[in-house]
Specification:
This protein is α/β, with parallel strands linked by helices. It is 36% helix and 18% strand. The chain has a three-stranded parallel β-sheet with strand order 2-1-3, with helices on both faces. β1, α2 and β2 form a beta-alpha-beta unit. GO terms for molecular function: acetyl-CoA C-acetyltransferase activity.
């Protein structure tokens, strides 16, 4: 089976009002660039370097703010600098093991 990375979105380094707002913007842009229906996104996995003060599960906050359905699950990986790579590995495992259609993977390095 072949797996494909459909879209990459980078942001300008800045301090947004809330990382979940920035995450929502990136989720929307990645889905638009990949030209997929947002209904095909099964899960959102986001790595986060510094999570203190961001509230519960920033990835879930971002996916809801992006307009994805409430039925889409999402979780935040907190492994400091390893968060981004770990979120990629977890997304790959989920696609292989669970046969997910599309997963959104991201990382905050704020």
């Amino acid at each position: 089976m072949r797996y494909v990375l459909l879209s990459v979105v980078l942001t300008v380094h800045s301090l947004p009002p809330a990382p979940s707002d920035l995450g929502a913007t990136v989720i929307k842009a990645a889905i638009e660039r990949a030209k997929i229906d947002s209904q095909h996104v099964d899960e959102v996995i986001m790595g986060n370097v510094l999570q203190a003060g961001l509230g519960q599960n920033p990835a879930r906050q971002a996916l809801l703010k992006s307009g994805l359905a409430e039925t889409v699950c999402g979780f935040t990986v907190n492994k400091v600098c390893g968060s981004g790579l770990k979120s990629v590995a977890l997304a790959a495992q989920a696609i292989q093991a669970v046969r997910r259609r599309a997963l959104w993977r991201g990382v905050w390095k704020i």
